[in-house]
Amino acid sequence: MCLVLGVVVCFCIQLSYIRDTSVGEVFRGYLPSSAVVEGDGIYLSCGILGATVMPHSLYLGSGIVQARLRHFDIKEGNLDPTSSAAYSDDDKNYYRPSLAAIRSCLTHSTVEVVLSLCTFALFVNSAILIMAGASLYDDPTATSADLFGIYNLLFDTIAPAAGTIFALALLLSGTSAGIVCTIAGQMLSEGAIHWTIAPWMRRLITRAISITPSIIIAGVVGADGLSAALNGTQVALSVALPFVTAPLIYFTCREQYMIVGGGSRQGEDEPRPAVDQVSMKSHWIVAILAALVWLVITIMNVALLVLVGMGKV
User: Which of 7, 1, 2 is nearest to 167 (CA)?
Assistant: First the structure.
């Protein structure tokens, strides 16, 4: 959270340097236009999409909520804290959260995700586009500028400190994204392949795995290719989104997988009476909206792959 707040502060300072830009022009930039399908518009749009909705963050969110469920059930007396089910997920003592825990954590997670996407993510992405559009739009060299070129342009056109603040924001955001990848990898390794090692060793290995490819790419492509590599990795995340979200949408819309309840208090010799089963599947309106959003993302990525194959991007 501190890293994200640092990025927000950096872009707040960046926006304070912009002059002679009307609010109306800024809000018109949110409206769809032909620029999305012209030139590299689809490529850059997919890059923004992949950087904002990272596929591996879905696994991270699902893993983080598990501890909240257990904490809620222990606090409410639905789970015996001395039982092995409170801290183990093996087949013999598998933990099944109560309906009250699911509803409470679902509400908490929904509010958390909506606030994070509609505040921090929206603000940072908007600040990047506003800053670029307001200060670099009329500069013919900005369209072909790489990360180092953008630093120089901001230094010359906005303020000497603007380039340094931009570099600091990139450092903080990259560190934050790396931590998300590391913890998501930890969730997958522990849950899918049951690979558990000492925390310090796990952090060392996962950080090395995430940093090493970046160092190799930076060394191979050099300074001129870093921007292309950065955009390419973000587009790759966008291409992976349909494959990751399709099973999620499917399973959450199927009642046979979304039935909860019917269990008793775990960890007791004399369990309490079971509660009624409740369907937690997505409402049909939510299912339709999810399918439409998935379809739009898929069409964008298919169009992108076709354009890349034709050499037009």
Answer: 7
Long-range contacts at 274-279 (CB < 8 A, ≥ 24 apart):
275/98, 275/99, 278/99, 279/255
The alpha-helical segments, DSSP class H, found in 38-159 are 41-52, 55-75, 99-115, 122-136, 147-157
Query: Angle of helix 2-16 relative to helix 160-191, nearest 10 degrees?
Result: 160
Contacting residues for 205 by C-beta, under 8 A, at least 6 apart:
197
**In this structure, what token pair is assigned to residue 88?**
């183990």
| Residue 8 · residue 200 · CB < 8 Å | no
Could you tell me if 14 and 166 are in contact, meaning their C-beta atoms sit under 8 angstroms apart?
yes
Q: Is 279 helix (H, G, I), strand (E, B) or coil?
A: strand
What does the pLDDT look like over 244-281, one tens digit per residue?
889 989 998 988 888 886 554 444 444 544 556 788 88
| Separation CA 123–CA 103 (nearest Å) | 29
Which residues, in sequence order, are bridge partners of residue 266?
79
